[in-house]
Write a structure and sequence with these properties.
2 domains, mainly alpha
Length: about 80
């Protein structure tokens, strides 16, 4: 499961921080653990997986988020930055 979470984290950071368009294809035959479905459900419902990021990752996300909020003239809140 560690590799799964690392790959999902890498992909989400690539999309958000690097602003790279990404397609995620997932087939039911690839499910090896129920946690994978819960993680995908979290992404689909809220755009995130709880407890996925380390402190340094959150700082990097916030730095990029602040720049994006300023560029779009929207309030700098935790939700807007994320």
């Amino acid at each position: 499961m560690g590799n799964w979470r690392d790959d999902v984290k890498k992909t989400l950071l690539q999309c958000g921080i690097d602003n790279k368009p990404t397609t995620f294809l997932f087939c039911d035959t690839q499910i090896i653990d129920e946690q994978m479905l819960e993680d995908i459900n979290g992404i689909l419902n809220s755009g995130d997986i709880p407890n996925l990021y380390k402190v340094e990752d959150v700082e990097e996300i916030n730095n990029v988020g602040k720049k994006e909020c300023n560029a779009k003239n929207i309030p700098i809140t935790k939700m807007n930055m994320f």
